[in-house]
Amino acid sequence: IMTDVLNHGCIVSAVVNADNRSGKMFGNSPKVRVKPYRHCDMADLARKLRRYAKPGDRIVVISDAVFSMDGDIVPLPEMLDVMEQYPGSVVIMDEAHASGALGPKGGGIYDHFGITPQSVIERGMNPLIMTTFSKFAASAGAAISSHIQAFTDLLDVSPTSIGTISLPPPTTAAALESIRQVRQNPELVEKLQANTRYLRSRLIEHEFNAIGETNVIPVILPSEMNPKRFSQHLLEQYQIWVSPIWFIAKPRLRITANALHTQEDMDRLITAMVETREALYPTQATVTMTA
């Protein structure tokens, strides 16, 4: 199993347990080996595969489609070029932040790059797509899409599958309706993507270090700025909630644009963030404005 070093914690937890019963499809499966590769570095993925893959291995690569802490996108075409060298390999995409957000139709990472899962199958690989309903679908639970027949065998021995309940009908109905809305109203996707471009550009214009390329917009803060304090000030003084992220190497605020935000909403956020910076960190604000 090849895994991006910045994959979401749920993936990390899954691959950590990949060599126990939940990671084996059949009783005679060989020991699962997990190897990380550098973030979105397909050259490193290729190097690691050449180094670690053995004849007869079943190769799996798993990656977030959109990385939740950085807002960047996996280079899927380059990944497929690498994995095509290993016929029968499985390519798993976690589309938690991609479904309904990426691509002209909101179809996710494959739609974004103009690739179809069928074309991947025809190239000798096995695509598997995980879609989370708690993001774009305003519901709960998730779905896994695959043409692999033996996948049901894996579900039958996976504790995370057999130890949970089926999706309740109301949440399933809500998720299905959200999918219909995305398919029937492409203008919602267009509005989301336009809002994303506008908000990110406005943040950069006001000297905030906004990174990524999706509607997940992380703003990296200088070391002297406390993200929890910054976020609390926004909430208490402006009634605006922005997620503070402080438990990773580069503290940040994580902003998420959506299709219902107006330019007035986004401009109000920018004003609030500028005023918060000036109120809490006047020295930093002065340096930023004169830089």
Brief write-up:
By secondary structure, the protein is an alpha/beta fold.
Describe this structure in words.
The chain is an alpha/beta fold and 291 residues long. The chain has twelve helices and ten strands. The protein is globular, with a radius of gyration of 21 Å. The model has no long low-confidence stretch (mean pLDDT 90).
The total beta strand count reads 10
CATH topology of the largest domain: Aspartate Aminotransferase, domain 2
Strand residues, percent = 5-15%
Rounded to an integer in angstroms, the radius of gyration calculated over CA atoms is 21 Å
Question: What helical percentage do the residues reach?
Answer: 40-55%
Largest sheet: 6 strands, mixed
Please trace the helix and strand order, writing H or E for each element.
Answer: EHEHEHEHHEEHHHHEEHEEHH
Shape: globular
* Strand order, sheet with most strands: 2-1-3-4-5-6
